[in-house]
Amino acid sequence: MVEARTQPANLITAQLIYSKLSAICSEMGESLIRLGRSPLISEDRAFAVGLLDSQHRLAVQHQGDFSHFFALRDTVFKVLDYFAFNYADGDIFICSDPYTGGTVGNILTICEPIFVGGENIFTVAVRVPMLDFGGELPGSLQPHAVDIWQETLRVTPTRLVVAGKIQKDLLSYIVANSRAPTTLRGDLEAAIAVLAKARRDIQNLAASLAVASLPTVLELMYEYTSAFTKQELRNERSGVSSAKANLQLSGDLAIEAEARIEYLDSGFSIFLSTQSDDCEHPYYLTEQATKAVALATVCAPVLDDVAINEGLLQLISIKNDNAPLFFAASPQPVSLGLHRTADCLSALLSQCTQRPDTSKLQPYGSSSKAVIYAPIGTTKKNPPFYLEPGFPMACGGWGAPSLRGVKQLASVEELEATQDLRIVNRERNDHNAMIVSVENIGPSREITTMSVPNPGAPLIKYTTYSPQASQEAAGSFAKPFPKGATLEFTYPAVEAS
Amino acid sequence: MAQSDLILAKIVGGALETAAEEMSATVTRTARSPLFNEAHDFTTGIFDYLEGDARLVAQAPGCTLHLYAICPAVRAALEAFKYDLQPGDVIVASDPYDGGTHIPDHVFIMPVFVDRKPRFFPVVRAHLADVGGPVAGGYNPRARDIWQDGVIVPPLKLYEKGEKRRDIFDLVLANNRLPRWLEGDLEAMRGACIVAERRINALIERVGINDVQRAIDENINYSERRIRAEIESWQDGEYFAETFIDHDYQGAHDIRVACTVRVSGSDLEFDFTGSAAQVAGFVNSPIANTLSFVFVAITSCCDEDIPINEGLINPISVTAQEGTVVNPVHPKPVGNCTCICGAEVAEAALLALSQCAPERVGVNCHKLPLAYTSGRYETGDPWVNLNFFGYTGGAGAAYGTDGWGLYPPLMTGVILPSIEMTEIQYPLRITKHEYVSDKTGAGRWRGAPGVETCMKYLVPTRTNAMLAGVTHPTQGFCSGLPGAANELDLIATPDDLMRIREVSYNHALPEGGVLRFLRGGGGGWGPPYDRPIEAISQDVWNGYLTTDAARESYGVIIDKDGNDGSETQERKAWRSTQR
Question: pTM of the full predicted structure?
Fold first, then answer.
């Protein structure tokens, strides 16, 4: 047991303490990158790490993908609420359910309450994408899903570790339902190790300061983040603005949507509505995903400069004005929501903000992607590989749109050495579009693709042996990808909405 | 053995069987899913546990195809928790590659402790209406790996020391489209195990554990003696037969299931060497399923008063090479194995046995025109209907009797739900359920007639339709002819009919859409020309046969009024050779 000492708090120490918390969080992220086995963690860095305070508010969060903004906090909140009055030192919980505070089915939240002096002063959490969680297809793209069970296993709040003892049967259940069991087990162990290190760091920190002052420290930081963000966005914060658009989600699915932003003293109130949508498709966004898109868009100008904490999250409130597309209800499928709908919504909200078309301020820009795996049923394990070999140039800029996260451009050498994929060509054309051709130089495989709709000019072309066989590969799944076949991705530069 | 020991063995055996039957009654009366409380698609049993080995000691009559499958599933679950069992624990498991058959068939196990050691295990094996995964109902004809079949459940404790693990319980419910039903069903199965625990404890209190154990050993020995006596009555030798699966729903056709039966004294071996390699589609049969269907076949050849316990299993061995359709390797899909190729495993075994025990084999059938339909109630809650009515019929003949009844014998114990209850529980009307003419296998004894069923759904639906038993319908025995081919139609409107050739995935039907099943009749037993003219005449009179078919299949000319007629030259010639 760590004995907590008491110390008075002041503004300087508040910043120092907060920086230490932020450093702990940052180290969690760095450790995860080094320990995680999945390329989604070690290369794409599409995870989040965070600390929640004793009230289960977000104290600090570091992330590599916008989708975690609200989902980490909300999932942890729902998990702890589920186990209310029934958790203790040494317990670790897991959850990966779009309908328990999450976004999509393959992102697992792992959290551990930290106790000092018998009190739950923090909860540390990581939110990590898993390579595969069962479902119809390897990977997280399920272009034809009509319900959530078709997409992935649902992991509702469960206690993986009880007082330091791992629940082997639950672990077996989780692992048995993945086509990438070794990677999943490794990633889970990495996450647990990261949480353990963070627990020790926080307990050491608590031993050196006044625990009783922590709420005050955190309140100060929340207020600062909120005030700073509002100040920076003051020029945009007046009155009401609205926009309408026809969201082209896929080649044959378009939904009319309207957004209205009200700028209030407390932040941004966003009203969303769509035309009636009762069809079965996987383009739904959960409330947490929708709020994340809104925050990433509305607060884009300041996101590099402020800490991600409760003060930032509380600036955004979303009102469901009959918009089922943005407020998915169980059991609607969601696997393509973050890949496509999020960009469409961001573009719509960007219209409301009426910002100039500079790269930093316009975060949207969908890109086509593919998941590659061994022919289904032919191998005992079938870890999928997520291929996104290029990116669209952001509005008015030259880098990738910020909604793409911090993932790096796929390395030519890495692809060739570890995935038997050769980048034959990766160039920008006269229209600033990036064109990438990828050849399968390994064994025959299968692919699932998610192509951004682009009438008349498919953004993923699929060629088997002869150019004449080239065809569009929009939203196809389990398509043969034999040796010698190529995928040509086109990433047009993003235009202002 | 002293007579008093025999009496005690009978008393203890009866008590355990009664406990298993009481478990069955408990599930029926308390479960929520119509699969349990109407169709009885489950089996209950009791195992003992000595020195790390679990033995089946009693089983209630139930769905026959769970018969042996219950054993490896229990052993796998106990292996996972052998050092971590407490009174009040309840384990659930369904892993086709660790003792299971197909994912919907889950086992529920509760240890009963005697002298601080787990000594007995009441077990329920049941078919769940849904198991998450890509399609509602758990039968995914597009499956190419086990994860596409559904959510795998390695042994998992639902209750620990009598306390519900609420998070695990809710996890299991969340991965099911019918959580309200499942929740009740899980509690019902636990309730059944608790009832058995009380009965076992009462028995031990009355008789004493040592005498109970001695009595169980004697009962197991008795069953073994009976089955060995039956096998010894068959001529020693090697008997080969083969049959074929129509297709795997994904392009492979005429998939061979070969079986060599070796009778040696009182030992019996079923060797499936020569069966086809595993296939891409979900008709592969994991080893537990293959074993189970072998025992389905063998028990249909034995006296029904032999107690079902480990003794029945001991004299029999099964050989199935890894990587074949009768023993696939992970992760091949297996979702349809309890229909196809379970049916072919039993059929090949029976065809081989028919060469050494012709008067014992019969009642072969299980090739279903399978179709699962799902939709939503007005409340928005999903439902899944297994369309049990469409599978009725098809029983084959046996020595001394025509095929009879509505349900295929392999599903004995599964009860046909009432039409009224079905129409209350699902938004449908059963508009037709009738025997049809000329859709059965001819023989000295004929198969049960074919059955036509029409089910009209009152709301929009989706159906996964999987047809089998067309190219290779249910076989007859000992020169009996095969049954008729199955048919399956999905009818959106009278002008928009889709005749299923092999499979249709998630086929959408509008409100008023109709599923039409034609369940082909069973195979015959013995040469058709040997069937008495009076029996043929009776069949014509009952509408099972037309006069044309009577002439063509049986060589008997019967007038339009059904009067006994004369024999054709072919029949006369054949009969003359038999004298």
Answer: 0.94
